[in-house]
Specification:
Elements lengths: L2 H8 L1 H4 L10 H18 L7 H4 L13 H16 L1 H15 L7 E7 L4 H9 L4 H9 L1 E5 L7 H10 L3 H4 L5 E3 L6 E3 L2 E4 L3 E5 L2 E5 L3 E4 L6 H7 L4 E4 L12 E4 L14 E5 L11 E5 L6 E10 L8 E10 L5 E5 L2 E5 L8 E8 L2 E7 L1 E5 L5 E4 L3 E2 L9 E2 L3 H9 L11 H5 L5 H25 L3 E7 L1 H9 L20 H17 L6 E6 L5 E7 L1 H7 L26 E4 L3 E4 L14 H15 L11 E6 H4 L11 E5 L2 E4 L1 H4 L8 E3 L6 E2 L9 E5 L13 H8 L16 H6 L15
Parallel strand pairs: 1-23, 1-24, 9-10, 9-23, 11-12, 25-30
Antiparallel strand pairs: 2-33, 3-4, 5-8, 6-7, 10-22, 11-20, 13-14, 14-15, 15-16, 17-18, 18-21, 19-20, 24-33, 25-31, 25-32, 26-27, 27-29, 28-29
């Protein structure tokens, strides 16, 4: 593996999802798009590219190649979208009138607050600081919401949208092993380049069609609604990339890459040569700061149009200003840099050749100008104004949002937890960035509410997840992450929940008698004090073997001797057997031999004791064959570890490392988590109407929306409607109409 690729692999550790995909076939897509766009322009046709032509995927060092033709084409599509909006609304209304004849509501709003904890929410409601949540609880309903195994966003939100358990939709974790190489890869999508290319001097023109495959199976409930003529507006629901065609609008979220093809690679420009920072998720770029002037280079994606794959680069200059501020000179434009304040989104245009340009957007954050220059740059987001890949459906929806509301973050994991974890930015900077992104999402959400008078509106807000990950130490006095750190933001989570209450209040203003509002989270949150390194435990107990005398600490299973290894761990709780006929070089025989290994691992982990906290960190070890059902159970981890809150899988184990200690302190800013035993971290569900279940689960939400619109729930769904017709007809009036309904809790 090349050194650069190895570095990219290491970036997985910061968020658990940083592994870039294989090299992208994007140029082939862009060339085909260029030809397609040209033919449409010549012919005078203005229609969105088909999904097969529009789909492109992330890749390590991939380049998005734009051109004047595709730019004009995209802009023309945006204009047409705006001009034809009334016509399309009229057509949709006619279809919707027919489809809604069997509906019990005109509109369903699902407001997702990723990771909001029901226990904390209830505590703050009882204190009287969440009046809008309390109003929903009193007049409608409030319940704990059963989450998935694993209790994490990709698994839970996929079960939300499909109504199925992971054995039917095939998303089991952030990371899963490639059974041929054993190496971790993202579960959400797979990309392979075209097999052929055409040499043209120093250039190479990819030929053929790339392989682009979404990891998720089954179909989301909004696709089923659309097939019945009911339009949906879907915003930032995890695991919706690449965008799929359906009757509605959709903006993708988790798994959308940055322009480099990673899940988020930031840049840190610093003149401080004595500074000692270990960056695994960002690039540290040394610069000279002399007489108040510094010159540097922004590293963009690899130029996959060239045979040498050279990195695209943009030169810039920083000049000192008054009062600690500065100026950024970039591509002939001067941008003010205010100390400790983010810039607006700045466009980066990388020249590829053959008249083509790659476009991305970034924000800069000036940390200091004296005695050293320190400048943070966000990962290079795909430009929604000129999207280089389909981050939305239709393709022009992202353009519409950008034209009407301004540019916005498109990266799936846009809140840069890694830069805070690695000490490049502080908590002040992280909070500022997080709330800037949240404001963008709010504008999109209320625009969708305004535009969707009938149908479904679904929006997931990430801020509740990202901020709790980084500030949960403030809710746990004994947390190791508190050592030597300030308590300045001890009320950050409390303020966050109050902000979410205000969001619910503004949403309620848009709710009428014919609207059902569901406010939900996919899981809860608890402290993450101690990490359990599963691969270290497997090594110490003889299930995993190494090539030398002892592990060296190498990531990505660099130490492992597969010819003697029976089991290995990848991701946030999955353990896999090195099975004959499935893994390359597998040594465990299916049947009795495999069952014996499962039992020994299960019993051993259940008996594990943390001598520091004097507890058993493992609540349960699940057998995938017993907890999942469906055609994809064979792709699941063989065993799934359910940890006691406070303990989570250790950072080293996530990406195949073997550390010195089985259990160790977690001292990162990433101090809260949800990858614990699912019953210990349920999500929450509020509704403006009483529901007909005392134990709702996240797989019930999609079927509930289908049922409310009179659409039959598919037989393969594991979930059921929480608002069946008989219960809805006898329930109280919905919140938002001014009439109190029946309370449920």
């Amino acid at each position: 593996m090349r050194a650069r690729e190895a570095t990219s692999w290491a970036r997985l550790t910061a968020r658990g999802v940083r592994r870039p995909f294989a090299r992208s076939p994007t140029v082939a897509i862009r060339v085909r798009r260029l030809l397609f766009a040209s033919s449409l322009l010549v012919g005078g046709l203005l229609s969105t590219p088909t999904p097969a032509e529009a789909y492109v995927g992330p890749g390590a060092g991939f380049a998005f190649v734009s051109s004047l033709f595709i730019l004009l084409f995209t802009m023309a599509l945006a204009v047409v979208t705006l001009l034809t909006w009334p016509i399309r609304l009229a057509v949709q209304k006619i279809r919707g009138n027919r489809a809604l004849a069997a509906s019990r509501v005109k509109r369903v709003i699902v407001l997702g607050l990723d990771g909001q904890d029901p226990e904390l929410t209830e505590q703050l409601m009882d204190e009287g600081v969440l009046p809008n949540f309390s109003r929903l609880r009193q007049q409608g309903s409030f319940h704990r919401l059963r989450t998935t195994l694993l209790a994490e966003s990709p698994v839970a939100w996929t079960s939300f949208q499909t109504g199925c358990n992971p054995g039917k939709h095939r998303i089991f974790d952030f990371l899963v092993p490639n059974r041929k190489s054993h190496l971790p890869e993202l579960c959400s999508a797979r990309v392979a380049p075209p097999k052929r290319s055409l040499p043209l001097g120093p250039f190479r023109i990819p030929l053929g069609k790339p392989l682009i495959e979404a990891g998720r199976r089954s179909q989301p409930f909004w696709k089923i609604l659309g097939d019945h003529g009911i339009v949906s507006s879907i915003l930032r629901v995890p695991i919706t990339f690449p965008a799929e065609k359906f009757n509605g609008t959709l903006l993708c979220a988790m798994s959308v890459p940055d322009l480099k093809g990673s899940q988020g690679t930031y840049s840190y420009f610093s003149s401080d040569t004595a500074e000692r920072l270990t960056l695994t998720s960002g690039d540290r770029v040394p610069i000279e700061w002399m007489n108040g002037v510094a010159q540097g280079v922004i590293a963009g994606p690899e130029n996959s149009l060239r045979k040498d794959g050279a990195e695209l680069r943009l030169p810039f200059e920083v000049r000192a200003g008054a009062n600690g501020h500065a100026e950024l000179h970039l591509d002939g434009v001067v941008h003010p840099l205010k100390r400790r304040e983010y810039t607006p989104w700045i466009t980066l245009d990388f020249k590829v050749g053959l008249g083509m340009t790659v476009t991305g957007i970034v924000r800069f954050y000036l940390i200091e100008t004296t005695p050293h220059l320190k400048l943070y740059m966000t990962p290079i987001n795909i430009d929604p104004d000129r999207p280089a890949l389909p981050i939305s459906h239709p393709f022009t929806y992202a353009v519409y949002l950008s034209k009407t509301q301004g540019r916005f973050a498109t990266l799936g994991l846009a809140e840069d937890t890694s830069a805070l974890n690695e000490g490049v930015v502080d908590e002040d900077a992280f909070l500022q960035q997080t709330y800037l992104i949240h404001a963008e999402r709010e504008r999109m959400f209320f625009d969708a509410l305004d535009k969707t008078s009938r149908g479904a509106v679904v929006c997931v807000f990430d801020i509740t997840d990202r901020l709790q990950h980084m500030f949960f130490r403030h809710l746990d006095e004994r947390h190791p992450a508190n050592r030597g750190r300030t308590t300045k933001h001890k009320d950050a989570i409390r303020k966050l929940y109050i902000e979410m209450d205000a969001l619910v209040g503004r949403t309620l203003e848009a709710v009428d008698d014919d609207t059902v509002l569901l406010v939900m989270s996919d899981h809860g949150f608890k402290p993450f004090r101690r990490g359990v390194n599963l691969n270290t435990w497997l090594y110490q107990h003889g299930f995993l073997a190494v090539t030398g005398d002892r592990p060296t600490g190498a990531d990505m299973f660099g130490d492992v001797d597969w010819s003697r290894t029976k089991a290995y761990a990848v991701g946030f709780g999955g353990i896999y057997l090195n099975l004959q006929g499935r893994e390359t070089g597998g040594i465990v025989t299916p049947g009795d031999d495999a069952d014996q290994v499962r039992r020994e691992i299960r019993d051993g982990l259940r008996a594990l004791v943390d001598e520091v906290e004097k507890v058993q960190p493992v609540r349960e070890v699940y057998d995938a064959r017993q907890v999942y059902s469906g055609p994809y159970v064979a792709d699941a981890p063989d065993l799934i570890v359910g940890f006691r809150p406070g303990h989570r899988v250790g950072w080293a184990s996530v990406t195949g490392g073997i550390s010195d200690e089985v259990i160790e302190d977690n001292t990162r800013y990433w101090s809260g988590d949800h990858n614990f035993n699912p019953p210990d971290v349920p999500g929450m569900l509020f509704s403006n109407r009483p529901i007909a279940s005392d134990a709702p689960g996240i797989m019930d939400i999609g079927p509930t929306v289908l049922d409310l619109f009179g659409v039959a729930i598919p037989a393969y769904c594991d979930g059921q409607s929480l608002l069946p017709a008989p219960a809805a007809s006898t329930g109280g009036s919905p919140v938002g109409t001014g009439t109190a309904g029946t309370a449920a809790s």
